[in-house]
Amino acid sequence: MEQQPIEGDWATRLALSIATEVRRHRQRRKMSAQQLSDRCGELGLPIQRSVLANLESGRRTTINVAEVLVLAAALGVPPGELIFPVGNSPVVEILPGEKREPLAGINWLAGIDSFSGQTSAQATGSLLHARSHEELVGRLNQALAFREIADARMAEVAQYRQAAQDFADAEAQAAAAQSELNRLDDAADGDAERLSELQKELLALGNRLGDLAREAELYRRALSSAHRYHVNATSLEERLRAFRKGIRRVGGIPPLLPSSLSYIEPGAPTLEDIEVVSSRRIEESPGRPDGRRADEVLGSVVEELPSEVGSALEGLLSERFADLVADAVVQKLERGGAIAEGGSPES
Q: Which CATH superfamily is 10-109 part of?
């Protein structure tokens, strides 16, 4: 159902448009206002049912970023869909007087394109670094998977490792037997019995050579594949290390690595370490009646981690990020884009 035009200044129109989408998605999910309120509380940002009612009815004409994020999570939709209703409005006002189709607004939010349409440049700076890093991590994970498969194949054909040498030996034996056979054939008084033995030996050697050739080829192909995948994985590992160093050289903080790639930067916190912190439920309200600051709460959580991980986390997390973790506000951004071949943060 298409949104109807909304009166008021741009900020008011945007808030009321978001409220319309909140109601639309709530009703589509068959959630009551109380259920939505309860779910927001479970996510860490209580929003009273009366506040939701006022928002949906238009009596409340403001909404903040935190509320948009938590409402989107509670409704199971991307935040961009609440702000720019794809499929429910043909045109949205991205900025005052700047009207575009909803997808253009979402692409702007994601850093994929500019809102003005004057340029088509992709995201720059930190966002581009993060996407390029993600692309490298994905390529490395794929290379490591192929390398593992190649290593397993090498184990399967390890028995054929000697086949290449055996093939050379058998080939030399066949050549010697063929030479003797030719000599006896040319002799007037050739030994018939020896001729027969040589013919049988050559036949057996021919069969043996065929088997050895197949085994040697299997081993050669497996070895070639394993070498190629090892070289590719090693190259990507070095590129990822260099890329992370490049991000730091320009004053940035590299994205977290999965624990499976912790060897790329030993001692650095991983995605799984952060999940340990953010998954701990912090029961206090955002106002913190106990009087503790967010960084103090985070510090108590960090203490439960291994010492080397805890110290790395304390060095990495800024106070702003600490607030987010301590309040259990998890913001997941959809990433995209691709790293240009040979690209780096300094290029």
A: lambda repressor-like DNA-binding domains (1.10.260.40)
